[in-house]
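Example 3.2
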Amino acid sequence: MVDKNEVVKKIDFRGLILLSMGHMMTDLNTSALPALLPFLKEALGLSYAMAGTILMFSSLTSSVIQPVFGYITDRKSFLWFLPLGIFCAALGIALLGWASSYQQIIILVILSGIGVAIYHPEGWRIANFFAGEKKATGMSIFGVGGNLGFAFGPLMAVYFVKSMGLKGSAFFFLPGAVMAGVFLFSNLWRVRRPSARPSSPSSSPPTSAKSVIYPMSLLLGMVILRSWAHIGLMTFIPFYVINYMKGDPMQAGNLLFAFLSAGTFGTLVGGPLADRFGHKKIILFSLGITSPLLALFLLSSGSGVWSFIWITLAGFILIFSFTVSMVMGQYFMPKNIGMASGLIVGLAMGTGGIGAAVLGLFADSWGVPLTLWIIAFIPWGAFLLAALIPYPANKKAA
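Structure, written as tokens:
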């Protein structure tokens, strides 16, 4: 077990990799849900708004309540949150295929969401400690696990359901249970009250509550809009391909896999680039380039080689900024790293589910293609907010 008094300058790869694997297993279940929605919609006769509401409940429980758990873990470390979170996240999704009513689906989604919510703040807080002085690089190692989970979740969901029907969702329980067991019997991730390494005087973060509110509000607004775009694409690409383009469900799963797996590499590349060239510059580059790539994807009608090329590039570039925004949030709140993590990953990203519900109403009224065009230009709104964030231009190691 690592003591908090040890000054960690170099990245602890072993601890970060294990945390990253747990991150992958939790987010595997989160991303499986949008891919399961078309099948649940058909089986239970749901509307697009009801499907969007399912995602809203998922986001409310998996993300929006994360700041609460972040507040708790900043004051007392609950390491058992990590294996418990992995287990609950898998259990809820595994039982979805056995649900016989809309109400049962909501209950299971809430169970899975709470598992995700209790894993992330504690995971990000410990990852901050293991990251040493290269925060963006270290956080990208932890973040890449989540992106891998997001990438493989839809592909696994479609494969299981196509092969075994809706009850094939039960196979999501196995990897979650195994990883929870690994955490229970491993000491690599156990840390005694990890805390952030103090910033140097030349790069001191804001200290007063008033000075923190303004930059954090802009940062959270940017993350909210980015999340609306990210979750909106995850939600409506399957509907677009299956219902409007009359494509095979596996084609929709492959597009989502291309989009999300590209984000995995974006996470790995974005962190080191941010440590080298500056955090804010990488975020602005990411958000500015994503919208044109999404427009090119829609112009290619969601089929053919070019569709895969454009959606892959969009996923790669959009997720460039994911772990970088986390480092920025922890820079603004160095004494409340768990709370900052909960706000960035939880409250801000979780509102993407609320955005999905709103976009579901748009889709019911205006159609899925127009809704995707709206989603395509949301990153430019996030770009404008990011440009206003007061953050050191040469900040490389928050």
